[in-house]
Amino acid sequence: MNKKQRITQILKKISSIYPTNPKTELTHKTPFQLLVATILSAQCTDTRVNIVTKTLFKKYIIPKDFADADQKQLEHDIHSTGFYRNKAKHIIVSSKIITEKYNSQVPKTMKDLITLPGVARKTANVVLSEAYNINEGIAVDTHVARISQRLGLTDQKDPKNIEKDLMKITPKNKWRTLSNLLIFHGRRTCKSRSPKCAQCTLKNICPSASIYNTHF
What we know:
This protein folds into two domains: about 90 residues, Endonuclease Iii, domain 2 (Orthogonal Bundle); about 100 residues, Endonuclease III, domain 1 (Orthogonal Bundle), CATH 1.10.340. Helices cover about 55% and strands about 0% of the residues. It contains twelve helices and no strands. α2 runs antiparallel to α8, α5 crosses α6 and α9 packs across α11. The longest helix is centred in the middle third of the chain and has 18 residues.
């Protein structure tokens, strides 16, 4: 079975246990809120981000509110998400750019999005696919990277190279679905330190299942 065939099998199997049309678990109402939430999610759980943004998005409504924010105050507001100084700085500067250059609208292209401070391909892919239904790439977070490696879909470690490998073997209309399903699977079953291989729907096609079953 080649990798393209294995991707088909993987999508079929995990689609049967997770939502039919999987979406990000970051709470948001607008593309801009999703952008901010995704920046905050770096090295932080979606659950924690959602707790923070529940209050944050009532205090700061539009991009200009963030653009005009006092950095120290914003740092305090997002402190529990970690790396709050850099995140606050990136959010403020990105908000200024969006307000002044893009008429307060989050850009709809990868080229424009990755020029914003704090926005790399993963964040851009999330915004494009979730907010605009544009599949320009595959969002590779720690879960997607880990599971792709365990499933033998890539031997790369750099997220950009993992993304390239996955894009080659996955139908373009499934890029968003693949990313979200692997994220769900990583949070619930294929965990970093204690993967639940015995319960995993992919155990019969996963080359790592026997290894982790031995150690856990």
